Request: fold
Amino acid sequence: MKRSTRTADQIRRELLRPSEEDRVCSICKEPYAGWGNNAWPVNNGRCCNDCNWIAVIPARLRDMHLQEDLRAHKLRREKRK
Reply:
């Protein structure tokens, strides 16, 4: 019996890599190459690089700024008491 020459890391990458038919952007519905990106907070799927830069990263930055504004507002209210 012939032994496989693939390493455990190569096998792990093959198993975790999405199949060709699964590589469709959850935002623009276009196919993408490679691993894709986590589309949260826009949706719970995977997205292409373009949608990541155009929609996902700005949404994350907005969320981050809203959280900072909320913390600052709470601090101001506590100081007034």
